[in-house]
Specification:
By secondary structure, the protein is mainly α. It contains nine helices and two strands; from the N terminus they run H-H-H-H-H-H-E-E-H-H-H. Strand 1 and strand 2 form a beta hairpin.
Length: about 210
């Protein structure tokens, strides 16, 4: 369902961006006219920056980290990878140059953002899966969070290794086969010739000698 509605959502978002851009342009015009007449501006400059407006070519020819960071700075809040992906699509980001297949863009973006986290990264991944700019958050808190996550990962790895050793020990345990469980000896059936010899009556040699005498 999400794939089917994706194009409609993208089209509506693009339309909304155009409308918001029009609003921003109108505000700037009003401020300019007021300034020309010697009056103070009616709208503060911060309202003109965004509010979420993404130009159709804003991210064209730019890197994924730079584009994502710029969008987050515009939003001024952490966003889910799905939101960032829609913004990149609306802003003309060239996924073909990045080598991202259409059906795998969201996964590729999430991986790319996750790789750019940590003390040397631009982003920070929250527990709810959203990404924000690392510069927004307290550095001491981020170090504690990273330490806690590292300890939790170490415990999971230790438990996984313990289960692996236990499983290996069970499979390598020698098996004792008792006489009853062993293979019974196979009985050899007599050949047809042996059966004939066994069935033939014994010949009295004394009688044969008298007959030949």
């Amino acid at each position: 369902m999400a794939d089917e509605l994706g194009p409609a959502v993208t089209a509506l978002q693009r339309k909304l961006d155009e409308q918001l851009q029009g609003v921003a342009d109108t505000k700037r015009t009003i401020n300019m006219l007021l300034k020309m007449s010697g009056q103070p501006a009616l709208y503060p400059d911060s309202d003109n920056e965004y509010s979420g407006v993404v130009r159709s070519d804003q991210f064209y020819g730019r890197g994924v980290a730079t584009s994502s960071a710029e969008y987050l700075a515009m939003r001024k809040q952490a966003c889910q990878p799905e939101e960032i992906l829609r913004a990149l699509e609306s802003g003309g980001f060239d996924f073909d140059v990045a080598g991202w297949k259409k059906d795998d863009r969201l996964r590729s973006l999430a991986i790319s953002l996750a790789k750019n986290t940590g003390s040397a990264g631009k982003f920070h991944k929250l527990n709810n899966g959203a990404f924000g700019l690392r510069s927004w958050y307290d550095e001491d808190f981020l170090k504690k969070a990273a330490l806690g996550a590292g300890e939790a990962q170490a415990k999971r790895t230790k438990r996984k290794k313990a289960r692996g050793r236990s499983k290996a020990a069970k499979t390598s345990k020698p098996t004792t086969i008792t006489a009853e469980e062993g293979v019974k000896p196979k009985l050899v059936e007599p050949t047809p010739a042996a059966k004939v010899r066994k069935a033939a009556p014994a010949v009295d040699t004394t009688v044969l000698q008298e007959q030949t005498a």
